[in-house]
Amino acid sequence: MKKLIPFVLFMILMLLLYIGLSLDPKEVPSPFINKPAPEFATYDLYKNDIKISKQKMLGQVWLLNVFASWCYSCRAEHQVITEFTKNHQTVVIGLNYKDATEDAKEWLKQYGNPYDFVAVDKDGDIGIEYGVYGVPETFIIDKKGIVRHKNIGPVNRDSLQQTIIPLVKKLEAE
Amino acid sequence: MVSQIGLFALVLALITALSQAVLPLWGSYKNNNTLMLTARPLANLQALFLTLSFVMLVVAFIQDDFSLKYVAYNSNTTLPLMYKISAVWAAHEGSLLLWVLLLSWWGFLIAVFSKSIPDEMVAKILAVMGLVGVGFLSFVLFTSNPFEVLNNIPAEGRDLNPLLQDIGLILHPPLLYMGYVGFSVSFAFAIAAMLSGQLDASWARWSRPWTTIAWAFLTIGIALGSWWAYYELGWGGWWFWDPVENASFMPWLSGTALIHSFAVVEKRGAFKAWTVLLAIITFSLCLMGTFLVRSGVLTSVHAFAADPGRGVFILIFLTAVIGSSLLLYSYRANQIKAISSFKLISRDNFLLVNNILLMVLMASILLGTLYPLMIDAMGMGKLSVGAPYFNAIFVPLSLPLAALIGIGVFIRWRDDSLKRIFFEVKYYLLISIILGVVWSLIYPQWYLVASIALSIAIWIFLTSISRLFNKKRLANNSRAKYGVTLAHIGVAVFIVGATLTSLYSVEKDVHLKVGESYQMAGFDFKFVKMDRKAERNYLSNEGEIEVYKNKKLYKTLYPQKRSYQNQQMPMTEAGIDAGFFADIFVAMGEDLKDGSWTIRLQYKPFVRWLWLGGLLMTFGGILAAADKRFFKFAKMAKIKLDEGADK
Predict the structure, then answer these.
(1) Residue B327: which of A7, A20, A98 has the nearest Cβ?
(2) What is the 3-state secondary structure (H, E, C) of B328-396?
(3) A16 touches chain B (CB under 8 A)
(4) Contact state of B376 with A70 under an 8 Å Cβ cutoff
(5) E strands, A23-71, where?
(6) Contact residues on chain B for A135, CB-CB shorter than 8 A
(7) Domain regions of chain A by residue span
(8) What is the least distance, in Å, from the CA of A9 to any CA of chain B?
(9) For residues B551 and B538, what is the distance between their CA atoms, to the nearest angstrom?
(10) What is the CATH number of domain A25-173?
(11) Does B303 contact A at CB distance below 8 Å?
């Protein structure tokens, strides 16, 4: 029986690794959830005189979608975001993260611009404030300016239908 | 066309591997010689098909054949030729193809160099290798086909990750894989021996040189990886306890235990069951390493495209192969009887302690690597285990292990007395302690661990060298003895490097304007100018930093910040003055737009010794594997065979 110990230990290890497969190590819960969204103030990509800040958004539910022209997985996500803005009135601000102005404009021309505003974050300072470590990321912020949800990685149809839309509806009713 | 041939050859290789796994084994079961003798030709054929398939992928890369998804994703027309070739194994699909290619080459080498081993044994060994090949070939074909074609052929490829456009990519993965895959040979030998119930000294003698060579490859592979990370990642670190690094270090520790326990099996006939278990564990760690790297269950700086579907496949394969081996072990191990006895103070027992320490080390690293996963799996939150944990377990376990080397080379088999050993080594002990303490006192700050580690390094060096002078003439020493000595000196050199670099490196992040200087570690660093340069596939900002020592120009370094055409992330290419006793390391940080830059300056004493140590261990391993007795044994067996034929 003693000689079976290695086998048993090995099987336990395999079970652990199997469970591990269904977990996502990259999905670190954001420390901002249920905390006030960090303050920021910047200008719009197209109109330099339009100032965008957290203060201005108070009183409504809004989405902050971090994107960049150099980000490959943003392209797939972009269709989903576009669909969302077509069917919903909720304000979506695109945070153009560490991008060149011309590249960003070119990209939005090519793939369409679903955003109500495109906030420029050329040096990534706002990204740092929001704890962005992978693009794309999407934040849902409520009427009081509190972060209620963070979607890591591209928003897909499942996460849109199952999480984002119900949450936005709930927050708008609050 | 090229891709069709490649894919076709891959399918043929799978069929061949399947036959190689089934026919010889069936033959040995039925006692059918003809079937058993198919093992060697089938192994050769498999190697041939895989080589063909691999060459086709190389050709696709050279020809910029972007109709292949894999080529389009990992290459570019502007990529220099040698990177086009090494891009073949730059991502998941191609590196797996390299894995099976090397596996088939090991099979081929066994088929060629196994004349001294009975045919029945060879049949079983190659069948096990064939089985492993079937697993990996199906993995390649069904989940990770490098010959997958794109419907819309892009005009230009996406380019190779700039981090990988480096000599490191050319050397590190193939050598590391040679090591990983090489342990499948020890595994196959162990399974074959268990199947035939023939776990004896001759099994150890057949298996030992193969294992040692696999170990040597793994050693140099890891050392190169460390060296690459040091200069390419631009942080100046040489080991990060990253899960992927640990995944290569665990089989190394277990493999080191294995090559030592083989000595006991061969010389003394003891530890047989344990050695078989070690061979299985080592290979399972190699497979698990592949799983950890490829499935993405752990976060790592090696950010490969992770795919849980692939993870499931490797996991099922791993469970089937290793699970059944361990069951076979539990069945067979009871029948193995030790024929020797040994006393507490004996080389046998010291090698046991060596094995225990190595395996405890391995288990602790395994625990640290998988701990975040365990906690997450139990829903207890997210955490990461970092360098402090690993250093805290590594240093106190590895130093006694290293110290034992000095006694290990002197102690006799079976029975010895501490008194006798002490009498032999007392002067070495004294000299080592004095020199070690004096050495550690040279440095501005004294650490106890520096005194201990340096004493141990000198101790290993002295005792190892002295063993060579035991015989009347140096030439009487066997290659094995020279190999062992060299490898142990490699350990000593590594300890010096690791200790001094870790304790006495100086590091500073400074803001400098062009023309300004900064003084550190006895050097003046002068930021002379910035240049913009356009290379074939990237633009670079190159800094010129003059390093002065005692007001005299000592060296000019040119650290770069590169931006590659097809990638957004800028790359840091450090300027390094590599020296035998110290490296000066300069890396450009951020452009602060006001004419100044952040610059990271580092002074790293004895950092080269880390990799020099690895290199010495590698050469030691190769030398030991080339010992005459392995050849002599082969010759004797051949004579026996010929005599048998005469009758």
Answers:
(1) A7
(2) HHHHHHHHCCCCCCCCCCCHHHHHHHHHHHHHHHHHHHHHHHHHHHHHHHCCCCCCCCCHHHHHHHHHH
(3) yes
(4) no
(5) 41-43, 51-53, 62-67
(6) none
(7) 25-173
(8) 10
(9) 36
(10) 3.40.30.10
(11) no
Residues constituting chain A: 174
> Quick check: B382 contacting A, CB < 8 Å?
yes
Residue B115 has what DSSP assignment? T
Does this complex have an ipTM over 0.85?
no
- What is the reported pLDDT for B235? 64
Mean pLDDT of B316-336: 89
Q: Is B442 helix (H, G, I), strand (E, B) or coil?
A: coil
CB pairs under 8 A between A and B: 71
Instruction: Kindly tell me if the per-residue pLDDT of B242 is higher than 50.
Output: yes
pLDDT tens digit string along B602-631?
Answer: 999 999 999 999 999 999 999 999 988 777
A136 cis-preceded (ω within 30 degrees of 0): yes
Q: Would you call A173 an interface residue with chain B, using a CB distance cutoff of 8 Å?
A: no
Is B326 near chain A, with CB under 8 Å?
Answer: yes
Cα dihedral B395, B301, A148, A59 sign: positive
Closest CA to B152 of B28, B68, B236: B68
Q: Which residue has the higher pLDDT, A117 or B337?
A: A117
Q: What pLDDT is stored for residue B62 in this prediction?
A: 95
Residue B301: pLDDT over 60: no
Q: Which residues from A are below 8 Å from B323, CB to CB?
A: 7, 10-11, 14
Whole-number Å distance between alpha carbons of B36 and B28:
6
Q: From CA B163, how far away is CA B156, in angstroms rounded?
A: 20
Which member of B296, B373, B382 has the closest CB to residue A16? Answer: B373
CA distance B243 to chain A (A): 12
- Stretch B299-304: mean pLDDT: 53
What is the biggest distance separating any 2 CA atoms in chain A, rounded to whole angstroms?
78
Under DSSP, is residue B291 helix (H, G, I), strand (E, B) or coil? helix
Q: What's the pLDDT at B639?
A: 53
Does B372 sit within 8 Å of A11, measured CB to CB?
no
